[in-house]
Amino acid sequence: MDKETHKKLIKDFPKSVVKPAPKGKFGDYVPHHIYTQRLVDVIPGKYNFSYEVIRGKDNSIVGAKCKLEIDKLGVVEEVGDVDMNALKRNITESEILKLAVSDGIKRCCMRFGIGLELWTGGTTEEEHYASDTSEKKIKNDAVKPASAPVKSDADKSQVSLSPAVKTEASSASADNPIALLEEANFPLKGVTHPNGELAIDEDGLWCVCKGVVKYIPDSEKTSAKGPDFRCSKMGQCDAGDTVDGKVFAKSWWIVDFRKETPKAWINYVQALNGVVMPKAKSMDDIKENEAPF
């Protein structure tokens, strides 16, 4: 699958189709038919979805084991669940199955990065261990120190900026990181990962596993400890870590204690926040006792 098609496939759903969570539940959602429409519109004939019924001890339907295969991306399996309140209601088995399959296809799509913005509160490895009450804890060098102050993305990405830097709205599209960086006068440095793999280009931000990396602004986080960047391939990301049998997508932070976050990504966030670096003047334009920018 080419980058442009993949980008269209995992593009955030428009706000107009995002529904608020029903009373008593948490998290906004997008109806399952919108997910199906995305697959049909972007990769017609290049995906296959199937499911198996899951029955309880009394032989009643309680869920569905769903499988989604996308050409060139692979296969994922997820269990579609049914809310307990729905099971208690006097609804038919076919209605229960529809609910389970609806949940299952959305979960499968999420594993491919489709609708990932609705799941950005998902647990990362660091958050998993931060909330773990058992004796097992993640290595100290992989967790933000508890004493680290929580700052906004704009604050975190601008800690090293000089007073000469100004902020203004950019006309460049956020969909083209390179154009955004160039318009904001940022040098195109730090565009690769520590291992040399490309981290950013005109099409977006890239994980070591070649998956699209999503920038997660503070407004979309459900935890202050959540990452600022995360691979959209989620459990399919082979650059992340597997802990206790659970696969975690590769994640990065602007305040990076492991020195893994590409510098260009941090500059990209600055540019998104309207930061414009001073442009160096020609030697002919510099007057006596004047700064060269």
Largest beta-sheet characterization: 5 strands, antiparallel
Number of helices: 8
* Overall geometric form: elongated
Strand order of the largest sheet: 5-6-7-8-11
Low-pLDDT parts are 121-151, 159-165
The number of strands is 12
* Count of distinct structural domains: 2
Classify the beta-strand content into a percent band: 15-25%
What share of residues is helical?
A: 10-25%
Broad structural category = alpha+beta
What does this structure look like?
- The chain is of the alpha+beta class and 293 residues long.
- It folds into two domains: 3-119, DNA repair protein Rad52/59/22 (Enolase-like, domain 1, 2-Layer Sandwich), CATH 3.30.390; 151-276, no CATH class.
- Helices cover 24% and strands 17% of the residues.
- The chain is built from eight helices and twelve strands.
- The protein has helices at 3-9, 32-42, 84-88, 93-111, 125-130, 153-157, 177-183, 263-272, and strands at 47-55, 61-70, 74-81, 166-167, 200-201, 204-206, 212-215, 229-231, 241-243, 246-248, 251-252, 275-276.
- A hairpin with a 5-residue loop joins strand 1 (47-55) and strand 2.
- The longest helix is centred in the middle third of the chain and has 19 residues, at 93-111.
- It is elongated, with a radius of gyration of 22 Å.
